[in-house]
Amino acid sequence: TGNVTYDPGFANTASTKSAITFIDGDAGILRFRGYPIEQLAKQSTFLETAYLVIYGELPSAQQLSEWEDRIRRKTMLDERMREFFRMFPRRSHPMPVLASGLMMLSTFSFDSLNDTPEGIEKATERLLAKVPTLAAYGYKNSRGEAMLYPDNSLSYIENFLRMSFGYPTEPYEFNDEITRALDVLLILHADHEQNCSSSTVRLIGSSGANIYASIAGGVNALSGPLHGGANQAVLEMLEAIRASGISVKDYVQQVKDKKAGIKLMGFGHRIYKNYDPRAAIIKQHADAVLRLKEGRRDLLNLATELEQTALEDPYFQERKLYPNVDFYSGLIYEAMGFPKEMFTVLFAIGRLPGWIAQWREMRADPGRKIGRPRQVYVGEPERAYVPIEDRT
Ligand code: CMC
Fold it and tell me: Which CDD domains does this chain map to (predicted)?
């Protein structure tokens, strides 16, 4: 088999060179195109960060307003796609609806399929514009509520909030604190180098598959509880702890015993062996947003106690397990009014610029090769076929 290295989970294999995101996991540093995440979270907007992640530089004022405008004018879905949402059962989980919606979108979009630079440009804007619409409609449909047309007088984030929570019969009232908190949360998720979903996007695209097909694969990879699905799993864990009445100390002990097969969801990371810088920023916002929904403060207190207990415990210290981005994000999404089934969809909206940037970087690489890992074969050696009547 030649010179094959066995590396389960690709823990030590760099699959690509990339100029998009820098992480120093030991120091807890995250930068997009050289800009520290803390500065972007404070000063940028999601669409500006998307531009930065995809094109490599911050836009000028004119570039930004043109970019926002081009995206705003692409937010509507083909009218026929309304029927598509009705095909799903009521209460369908919005992640598979989003993944299917991306494939549906590809059948309405021909630009990207011939891979011209203009086609990729259009697909980039179309994806950024239409994914929030797909996400909001998936949510509306799961509740049997009317799907609202986007309103082009609104910002990207406002449009999404109104399509998610608004009704056609009354004006939607925005809360600036919620709008900004969602903007920041999406910025924090914009890219994270070669994580499971982004690697999936690259791997699918490496065969020459189009950007919609590749990103639909990314959404599916994100859905798992060890990846983006962790934000939903954290809230479920907190609710389960509270419902069972078990103490935080006993719960942490169960995790450490490894008997029940439970993990502390929202803790640990392949790369971060220090506090995830995104989690630190989210935690700052948690208090402000939870002020709006006092009822859930008990869960925030529970999460804080869980974090404290784990951080002081040698099991977590020895393994360098710290809270990751998913530990607090669900609590904020919930306070904004999203049900927990929507949390991972919000992660997907945030990660979209990263998937697009990774796909485009891969496609632009003249030295690109189809992704094709090796294996170590451990099965039977050669043996002769046995006719069915001779088998015991
Ligand atoms: N709770 C308890 N023990 C853990 C946890 C946890 N959350 N995470 C890792 N460990 C233990 C693990 O059992 C192992 O112990 P031992 O050496 O005794 O076998 C050790 O720490 C190393 O863990 P690993 O599984 O080898 O680490 P990994 O890099 O393969 O996995 C991870 C990374 C994120 C999948 C894992 O930490 C995990 O499952 N965390 C919980 C799920 C989660 O929060 N995922 C979100 C990740 S962040 C953003 C995102 O991608 O969505």
Answer: EcCS_like
